[in-house]
Amino acid sequence: MPELPEVETVRRSLTPHLVGETILSATLFRADICETHDQRPATDDTLLAHATIARIDRKGKQLALIATDGRVLNIHLGMSGQVLIRDQHPEATENHVHALWTTSGSRAVMIFKDPRRFGGLWTFPTIDLLNERRWSLLGPDALDALPSVWAPALRRGDRAVKAALLDQRAVAGVGNIYADEALFRIGIRPTTRTKRLSIAASLQLATTVRSVLAESVAARGSTLRDYRDADGFPGRQQLEHRVYGRSGQTCLTCGSRLRGGQVGQRTTVWCPKCQPSQTKHSERVKL
DNA sequence: CTTATGACCTGATAGC
DNA sequence: TGCTATCAGGTCATAA
């Protein structure tokens, strides 16, 4: 569920509860969702027990709690993951709570909950190790980096442009929702081969992606089903979706019937008129 | 090297 | 009601 805007919203909502506070204890209920830098079993120490949180970083769809002593807790929410701040420990009947921390903050409990377990935790003794093992594998962050820096990566190779947008090594943070929304806004069909994208079109696309993500951050992300920020609040950007989840409905721009299909293994929706086929588009979107 | 495909999980929903 | 099938915001390993 969580793409860049949702993860950034979690980061921001988590910050007042954690930064400057101390982790008093850490408990891992499911060892297999956590990987340590040396493959040894996680301990409360590797999970930041007794650390003071200096800041929370994000790259793409990943978060990292950075302790003042250098320790790092890297969190990926996968498809269904949540990081939630609570006043109380969860009830014993609450499912899929895989890790829990108590903190010095006024709301004293943080949990990592992830029904599908596509997400996980990674622990490192230093930020350098986080970068070396994990974040250096990602492309530039789609929100923080200049579009001109990563636009060329959208033209590399020969594949559907949507697949390039979803490739976290090309640019980090774009997922299925915002890929479709950005392609609709700029008028490029998701199946367009990257070889057929002009330099100008790739720059326009990258710029549009960043705008779409920034607008969603401003709306605190999209809540389709279970996405919530750290305080449990939903986002409201789903009200602005133009194509995602609207296959078969009318295009809000031209009234055509929106098409749906699979592109790069992912459900994809586009407008056959506003997002013309490849040859037509290369004439249209060139600058 | 690149790109495509199935696998990994659980829960919600639709259809019979 | 209850069963089965399908689908979901993301990667990952393996095949071609």
What percent of residues are in strands? 15-25%
Q: What's the order of the H and E elements? A: HEEEEEEEEEHHHHHEEH
- Characterize the overall form: globular
Task: Give the total of beta strands.
Answer: 11
The SS-based structural class is alpha+beta
Largest sheet: 5 strands, mixed
Q: End-to-end span in angstroms?
A: 35 Å
**Residue windows where pLDDT falls under 50 for at least 5 positions:** 281-287
The main sheet orders its strands as 2-9-5-4-3
Oligomer: single chain
Describe the protein.
- The protein has 287 residues and is α+β, with helices and mostly antiparallel strands.
- Helix content is 24%, strand content 21%.
- The longest helix has 20 residues, at 199-218.
- The chain is globular, with a radius of gyration of 20 Å.
- The two termini are 35 Å apart.
- The structure holds a DNA duplex (16 and 16 nucleotides).
